Amino acid sequence: MAEPIISVSGLRGIVGESLTPEVALRFAAAWSATAPSGPIVLARDGRASGKMIHAAVLAGLLGTGRTVLDAQIAATPTVGVLVQHYRAAGGIQITASHNPPEYNGLKLFSSEGRVIPDALGREVVKRYREGRFEWARVGRVGTHDQCPDSLTPHLNAVLKTVDVERIRSCRFRVVLDSNHGAGSVLGLPLLEALGCEVIPRGETPNGAFEHPPEPLAENLLGICEL
Q1: Regions of the chain where pLDDT drops below 50
Q2: Could you tell me where in the chain the CATH 3.40.120.10 domains are found?
């Protein structure tokens, strides 16, 4: 089997080749065995393979006794905000960022809501490769809870950093091209809260990219026509 691309902050690979449900489950279990005690925030972007990888990651976390706060579909920075807001032990975002649709991956967050430190990441990778994690017995299996609110904490954090009234007074007309990723989940209500007239494109987060996700000039020509 092909090896996924692994770094201290997570992994990514081609779904069904280097990234399989087993790989996702084992990597999540390795992170669970390394992270401090407490719940783990879990979210995913809109990629078509997200539900499958989500199920595998969830199994790895529950199987090692973790409480999981599930934010469902959310942008990657939102996971960091939620980790801090709910005082979680860490987080996992299922995403492959700007990579082609056949890719997916796992990005790990520390209890500070940031990418995990190098030393912690090396320990996760070591546990993953060696299989050093223990499966919970009956009575110690983790619990799966939905995040009480996966949107407002990040929305409010952004609104507190900008001059809302000044932006509203400008009445901006904004094209929001989420390309069927997770960007619209926060982006749309944020722009509306700022009084913008929003022209959404690809707002449904189903992974059906309308153009290559890499943000290069040639991939963004469609926006220029609006």
Answers
A1: none
A2: 5-147, 162-224
Residue 107 burial (C-beta neighbours within 10 Å; 0-12, 13-18, 19+): buried
Q: Which of 29, 142, 39 is nearest to 89 (CA)?
A: 39
Q: Is 100 helix (H, G, I), strand (E, B) or coil?
A: coil
Domain 5-147 falls in which CATH fold? Alpha-D-Glucose-1,6-Bisphosphate; Chain A, domain 3 (3.40.120)
CB-neighbour burial class of residue 221 (10 A; exposed 0-12, middle 13-18, buried 19+): exposed
Q: What is the pLDDT of residue 145?
A: 98
Residue 139 burial by Cβ neighbours in a 10 Å radius (0-12, 13-18, 19+): exposed
User: Is-catalytic flag, 97?
Assistant: yes
Whole-number Å distance between alpha carbons of 21 and 23: 5
Annotated catalytic residue: which of 97, 110, 169, 178?
97
Question: Would you state the pLDDT for residue 226?
Answer: 66
